[in-house]
UniProtKB/TrEMBL annotation:
Gene3D superfamilies: PK beta-barrel domain-like
Classification via InterPro entries: MoCF_Sase_C, MOSC_domain, Pyrv_Knase-like_insert_dom_sf
Annotated ranges, domain MOSC: 19-168
Protein name: MOSC domain-containing protein
Taxonomic path: Bacteria, Pseudomonadati, Pseudomonadota, Alphaproteobacteria, Acetobacterales
Molecular-function GO terms, alphabetical: catalytic activity; molybdenum ion binding; pyridoxal phosphate binding
Membrane-crossing residue ranges in chain numbering: none
Pfam family, one: MOSC
Organism of this sequence: Falsiroseomonas algicola
Amino acid sequence: MAAKVIAVAKDSTHRFSKHPVPAITLLAGLGVEGDAHAGVTVKHRSRVAKDPTVPNLRQVHLMQAELFDELADAGFAVAPAAMGENVTTRGIDLLALSTGTRLRLGGAAIVEVTGLRNPCRQIDAFQPGLMQAVLGRDAQGGLVRKAGVMAVVLQGGPVAAGDVVSVEWQPSRFHPLAPV
């Protein structure tokens, strides 16, 4: 089964959840057209407060729908866009990708994975206990953040539910994802 986009979302205001829409347009070097987090420099309020001149490595937030299945088994009801992602996928293990991996979304758009979303306290305000549910431990006891990956837009284009997601390029040496 090919990996697919199952939903897309955006919001022009800084909120925890985004609004599902039929399609989004990715803009090279900026992010999602019409989204509050689009821009060359950081747009997340906590990062802007520290240094508004830092490059925006969080232009697009991608999350795998398999996390929603896992959360449902734990008693949480989470739908696409509810945790603030722009692109919800199914069939690709986003968390296993290397930093620098390029993903083609649909026929034109290409994003480069920059790192992991670091879940914040807003998750528990959305649903109590959800923060702990999106964190796990690996075999060595290390923290695993499951709340998706962040990316920058290398090549713009439209993205909609049903579009194929494919790995366009991976670094020859694996670089583990870290929070950005």
